[in-house]
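This section describes the prediction task in plain terms. A model, or a person checking by hand, is given the sequence of a single protein chain and must write out its three-dimensional structure as a string of C-alpha cells. No templates, partner chains or ligands are provided. The sample shown here is typical of the held-out split.
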Amino acid sequence: MASRRTWIVLGVLAAGLVVLLALAGAAVYFVTQHVQTRRETSAEALRTFDAVRASFGNQRPLYELDQDGEPRMVRPLSELPAAPAAPTRLQILAWDPEEQRTVRLALPFWMLRLGKSDVSVVQDDAGFNLERLLLDVDELARIGPALVFDFRNRDGVRVLLWTE
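The expected answer:
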C-alpha cells in the first residue's frame, strides 16, 4: 500500500496539473474573445478600414509619422481635454496584403495596466515598427475614445489603432 507521503506528492502533482490546464483554457478563451483574423480581398479590407475611420469623422490620429518615418505625437496628450467616459479597450486592426488577411486585436485597458503605464507596440516583419511609440495608458484612458494611429506603407501594410 502507498505511503501517506506518496499520496501527498500525487495530490500536489494532480492539483498542479489542474491549475496548468485551467491556465491553458483561460489563454485559449482570451485569444478567441480578443483576436479575430479574417481573409479579405484588398477592397474588403479597404472598406473595413474606411468604416472604422468614418466613426472618427475628421479627427486626426494622436500620432503620425514624421519625414524620417518615425512616429511622433501630434500634440501632447496632456493638452487634450478629459472625456466623461474612459475607454475600455485598445483596438488594433492590421492588414497584411501578402496574406490577404486582416487581424483585429482588442486589448482590455486592465491588461495594458498590468505591467507598467507605458506599453510598447511591437514590430511587424513588413516594416511596421511602433516599438519606440510608448502609449501612456493613463493618458489614453483620461482622454477617452480616440483615433491613436493610422499607418500605411508602400507595400500595402496598414495598421490602425484606436481606443473605445
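For orientation: The mean pLDDT is 82.
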